[in-house]
Amino acid sequence: MYIIAEGLKKALELIFTLDPEILEIVLVSLKVSLIATLLATLIGVPFGFIIAVNEFKGKRIVTIILNTLMALPTVVVGLTVYAFISRLGPLGSFGLLFSPSAIIIGDLILGTPIITAFTLSAVQGLDQRIRMTAVTLGASKSQVIMTILAEARFGVFAAIIAGFGRVIAEVGSAIMLGGNIKGYSRTITTAIALETSKGEFGFGFALGIILLTVALSINVLFHHFQRKQA
Fold first, then answer.
1. For the whole prediction, is pTM greater than 0.85?
2. Which CATH architecture fits 31-192?
């Protein structure tokens, strides 16, 4: 109990004094997570929409694969990407290993299936009469798409938030691909793992509190926006 109390005390001191190392880690983590989430959104939302509004052979299999990929182990992603971007890998000449870009690639692979599957679920859950009504009223194909996405907007936003939550809390592939290099590729989760192993519980607690605060803030904003639009 003493260790926890002291750790929390030091954590609050680090946060309120705006410790430079803490800020540096948070900024790196937010940068790679936001970029990965943006890229995953640009891929996942259209892909999920296309699967939802079209009937084709193998659709059920595709859905099952997406749901399976949502639970993809991070270390498997890290190992696979590592094999491709390491010096001896096919993409080794790009020098991506142990960089923020490598972490973004891993996070993109982890976040895309989540955003795709949640978007698919949100669009499929809509009343089919929405699409038929838009077509009957003479809406163009692009207008029909926008109408459907507008109706499913909260589900799509939830998908993006879920994807962001997945990537910002990821640790396995981030360590393997980013190398946990101080001031360069050290994220919140990798720093927590490192500092805790060193016995620096206060530093770890500080980063943990910030991570939870970021997640809470995003969800509060989402629910506030949802309530205003209701």
1. yes
2. Orthogonal Bundle (1.10)
